[in-house]
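Journal club prep — side note

Before the paper discussion, L.F. wants everyone to see what a predicted structure for a comparable chain looks like in token form. Sequence:
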Amino acid sequence: MSKTATSLELTIGDRPSRTTNFEWLCKELRSAILEGRLKREMRLPSTREFARRYGLGRGTVVTAFEQLHSEGYLEGKVGVGTFVNRLLPEDFLQAKRLKDTMPPSKKRISAVPLSQYARRLGDPPHTQSLPPRAFRPATPAFDLFPLELWAQIASRRLRRATVALLADVDPRGYLPLRQAVADYLGSARGVRCTTSQVIIVAGIQQALDLTARLTLDPGDPVWVEDPCFPGVAAMFRSLGAKIVPVPVDEGGLNVEQGRRSCEQAALAYVTPAHQFPLGFAMTAERRLALLDWARRKHALIFEDDYDSEYRYFVRPIPALQGLDRDESVLLAGSFSKLLFPSLRLGYVVVPDRLIDKFAAARFTMDRHSSVIDQAILCDFITEGHFALHIRRMREFYAERLGTLQEAVRQQLQGVLRLDETEAGVQAVGWLGQGLNAEQVAAAATNCKVELAPVNRFILKKKRAEGFVLGFAAIGRRELRRGVDCLASLLEQQVGRKRSI
């Protein structure tokens, strides 16, 4: 493409009085290029000619040209002159915007090779809608969280903050929060631990990820409750572990069945206080059997204590960790499940012999969670607000559970049976014979009801048809609307079944 000299005319009278000649010249040239008055690849006059034509110092023109060259608007060629660049910085910005808005199906598929870990990962979950719909499980009523109180504590904490709050902390977390967690677990959950054993993490999922990375190599067997939360199995698969599904019944994890399936497992994942999703509590006999197996096989137990605080008719069941005398149990809990999901703070209590390894792994992964958020949570706990919130939520959740149970009795008698529910934020409902949970769940999306069939949580042996019905995050009216929709869908399915 030929290079031609420009006939650009700049009006010196347009320069604001407080703007230097250098600033004015840069702005005028930049605008002329972007508006097309200076065409791409046009040659500019020499700096000497430019300075003479506009009554500027040559040094000013040289400096302006150099500035625009560094920004990507001009290019200079020795012995030839200075030209407007063929590609401008805005071209790259515009290309990025177009790429980001392009539908995924239209984007060029990357040929970059992926690791085995990446290939084992599934698709990311979809963002959930607000407000929660009937019957979304595993969700707290964060609309009832005392947000104004939290904001007051946060404001006070920031007003009194010192520079220490802005610095890095121990990878195990903010020390006062770890002390508060240790005190709480000792009094409320029967946990035997010191402050040094408490490590603050981003939630139970990160605690499990750290545990798996530190204790499992690819191919190592791990016991996993069947059924279980899908993210647990997905995490173990992503790390290359060999999943050994162990069935769960009314007594919790069947330890004998686990031993028959794989005696030499390196790790066992359990939810003994309130099995997810079926809701059973592990019996004392099986707890002792599990601890005995771990002691004899030098295995570890990961105790997921995700919502044990919410028991409505009896005191919370003490943690399995409190029975451990051989440093076999790691206990993890989540404040995100108890307060609000975006908090992303939890804890893991680890045996003394693993403290340094967990601290090193956390430092390598992401150093630590937000120190300011940890300090705010610490104040929320130590000032008594956390305990009060848990008591209030027990009352609300028990009331909402009662609403669900009453609505099911009135409208779904004979087609859906609710298990006895004494704890947690969801209940399990079993369908009558011949009804298909997946078909009903698919139809329920049309009336904006979320149904989670039990068999979606199964690893191996399918169970009877049923649903995991969340109730904690859903108000009375929405719960009744959900039951109305479910009754209508089940009536249609029963009618079709009879007509066949």
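L.F.'s comment for the group: Residues 385-411 form the longest helix (27 residues). Keep this in mind when we get to the figures.
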